[in-house]
Every structure is written in C-alpha cells, then in structure tokens.
Amino acid sequence: MTEGVVRSIGSGRFLDWGAMGAQGSAGGILVCWDKRSLELLELEVGIYSISCKLKTVENDVVWVFTGVYGPCNRKERELLWEELGAIRGIWDEPWCIGGDFNVTLSQRDRSRQGSLSGAMRRFAQVVDDLALIDLPLQGGVYSWSGGRNNQTWARLDRFLVSQGWLDIFRGAVQCRLPRPTSDHFPILLKGGGMSRGPSPFRFENMWLKVEGFKELLREWWQGGERVGRASFKLAAKMKGGKWQGPVRKGSGYEKRGQGELQEVGSLEEAHWRQMSRSCGLEKGIRTLGGEGGIVKAFQQQLREEPGWRADLGGEILELFKELYDQKSFAKSLNATFLVIIPKKGGAEDLGEFRPISLLGGLYKLMAKVLANRLKLVLDKVVSVDQNAFVRGRQIIDASLIANEVVDYGKRGKKRGWCVSWILRKPMTHQLELPYEGLDKMGFGSRWMDWMWWCFSTAKFSVLINGAPAGFFPSSKGLRQGDPISPYLFILGMEVLSALIRRAVQGNYILAVGLEAEGGRDNGCLICSLQTTLLSSARPARIN
Prior knowledge:
The longest helix is centred in the C-terminal third of the chain and has 21 residues, at 485-505. A six-stranded mixed sheet has the order 3-4-5-6-11-7. Strands 14, 15, 17, 18 and 19 form a five-stranded mixed sheet that branches. Helix 16 crosses helix 18. The protein has three domains: 3-190, Deoxyribonuclease I, Chain A, CATH 3.60.10.10; 205-301 and 311-317, no CATH class; 318-542, no CATH class. By secondary structure, the protein is an alpha+beta fold. It holds the Pfam family Exo_endo_phos. GO terms for molecular function: catalytic activity. This is LINE-1 retrotransposable element ORF2 protein.
C-alpha cells in the first residue's frame, strides 16, 4: 500500500492511515482516519487484523478500532479468534471491530440456511467470550453474493462493538450501501454521535402534513390568556410553541418502516441515477424554469393554502407600538445563536472561522423595519468617502476612482503616494462608537434609544455540535446577520473619515483633492473593509 494510493481516496493533508499488506489478491486492510477528529495513540498489525488505539480530539475519549479480513480455512480462522483475544488482552478500552469475517454468525445470515455449522458455533462463542454486540443491519439482510449465477447470499461483513463503545456512541446502526461492482456490499457504521445536549427548536415542514396539526396549532396559539407587555406575550407564545411531543409520535412509523425503505434504496438509487443522467441531458437548463422545474418548486413554497394564514397582524402591531412607546422590548427576543463557519477548506485556527449570527424572527422583523428607515437618510449624514451600503452609491465606485487618480498621476508624471489598508476585525469595535456617531449626526433620543437597545441587549450562545452551550452577554462588536449591523458599521467608519478629514484640514496630510458633489473631497476612499488614502505629498514631506 503506497501513500499515493491512500491520498487518492482520502481527504488531503488531514488524512492519516495504517495498512496491512495483502497476500496476493486478498487479505489487505486499510484503516483511515481524520487527524482533526481522531488522534492515533498506538497501532498493532497482526496476521488477519490491524488495530488502532484512538483518542477523540473533541473530548479525549480513548477507544479501539480493529479492522478484520478473516480467512476461509478453519485452522487459519482459529488463529484469527486467538488474535482478537490477544487484542482484548492488550487493551480494555471501548472496542469496535469491523470487516469481512468470511463466516456467518447464525443460520439466518445465509440464504440457504441449512443446519448450524461448527464455524457458526465457534464464531458465536468468540462474540460471547469477548462480550461483543452485533448491531442491527439496515438496508438489507446479506452483505455478499456469489456461487452459481450469484444465487448464494450471506452476511459475511459486519461491525461488532463492546457495550462500553455503545455507551459512548449511542444509537449506532449498521447500514448496507449500494455496491457498484464488488460482490460485497459496503457496510457503513451510521449515527452513534456522542450524547449531546438538546438542539435549538426548528420547525419541521413535515408537521404541516400531519392531519390535524394546523388546527391544533391555531387552537393553541389563540387559546389561553397571557398578561404583560406585547413582546413578553409573543415571546411566551413562541417559547410555549417549542413542543414536539404530539407530532413526533408519528416518527415511530418512520422508524418501523425504515428497514423496508432502505431495503429498496439500492434499487431506487440505481434507477434514479440513470434517470437523472438522461433527463438532465434532455432538459438541460430548462429545469430552472420549465414545468416541474426548480424555480416553480420554490414558487410553490410561497403560495398560501386556503384558510391557513395566521392572523398575527394585531399582535405584531402591538409589538411595534411597545417598541415606539417604551423604546424597548423583551430581552429574550434578542437571543442569538452563533454558528462557526470555516472560511476555507481545512480550517484549523480560530481566525479561519467566521461567526454567523442566527437571530430570532421577531427581532429580525423589528430590526429590518429600523434598517429600512435608517438607510433612507444614511446618504445625507455620511461623507462621500463611503460607498458601501449607502443608497445611490456603489461599492465599486471607490476602486474606479482610485484607479483613475493613479492613472492620471502616471500620465501627468505627478508625484504622490497611495496607501490602502484593510480592517482585520471590522465588526468588533466598541458598542459606544456607533451610538456616539448617531448623537453627533443629530439623531433624536428616541432613535438612539432604539439602536442602543437593539445591539446592547443581545446575548449569545455558541452552537457546539448543534447544541447551545449557555448564553453570555454582548460587550463589543456587531452581529453578522443583523439587518442593522451594516449601517451601524458605516456610522462607525464615519469616525475614521472625520479623523482623516481633520488631518487634511490641519495640513498634517496633503491629500489629492477630488471633485465631488458638494465640494472637494479629502482624498480618502472607504470601501467597506478597505480604506484608500491618496496624497500628493513629496517623499521629503512624508518623512
């Protein structure tokens, strides 16, 4: 086994592996793992198996995996059983064994069941002695076919796990995958994620298909009397609506039919693979807009069903009236989940991840209304230096102007310099900065109180493996995903523009005078995260 062969099927520089060489055309074993998730502690290579002692990077859990390729000969198979017993003697950590054992465990593992053979009895004895558990197989009964005209079927491939391993990776099952060419079906050890906390509530579209769900939800929403502020009553209704018990009872039907569904999965996969290729070539780009196309599918999602529109107008208006009169709303509506998204493939350092804020729907509704009002006046209160997120200006204008000025200077052989810098963490400035900017620009106290309440009462919870890990308050920075954040960022950048403008007026910087609407500009161009300063100063003056 060469590294080039392994890399061709792996995941780049994060792939680590161990291998046992093949004997002729049989007997080879390759075990691969992702170094970002698993750390190899020890490796043992036997005659018929390869065992890895691994540590889960996330929580330092140590466990053992053994890959097996069993011999067909009875005497050699006995050596395999002794080898597995020796591995158990070396390590007593939670254990998972997987591979082609080349022997069935019971009569039901063969299409021609016959009598219970000595090899089956011995295999069952080994499984019992090593205290291993044979997980259920989904997607089919057998894992191999052969013999004359492939009429013989048997389950030769399987995963066996210890109870300790199953306690860590709960809910794991074996799944039979489709086989393209081999006489063996691939077996996937599926699920079994580590036990985690409850994930945030998410509405499932399938609930709308449950008979009586809409009537139940409408009755529950409109029933019951809640007292308090409008935002509190809405928050209480939203919180109380995060129940799933009566609806999830139907998920038992799915579980009971899961085996039957997966059994025909391989046949359907082959059928639809062929259909997708032929239909794709036939329809081409027409699938975007033709009958049954992608666009039409999304349009169907936006159409209302008769009698289903919820009457929330009055409650939403009460929420906005509360915001207007009291300049605040229930803090629970401003809770935010943070999801960490990698900026590039193979991200490792914290700086290579981008936090995305998942805001609540009610807060986002209020923030969007405030943002729509703010953007109407933004072009009147920020300088012409800024081009991003301002109505009537384009973000590309700054680049075009800078290129024109540089070209003009080159043609006229004029001396000067140009410096450009990019903000590394643009959204992490102090909360007071945009607030003070609003005050300097003449915004009223009511508007300033709205803004301050929106970004000062935010609290965050980081989703770790899909589960929230407690809340903490916001002390600085703006939320990505908040409709107000781009405009508050522009107001914060206006402070930088004012500082540069003051430096130009005091002759600390000899800037290139750019003719702009409303007078001469200070030679500063701000394009979102990038700031460019153009100067006609000579090198001696720069020093």
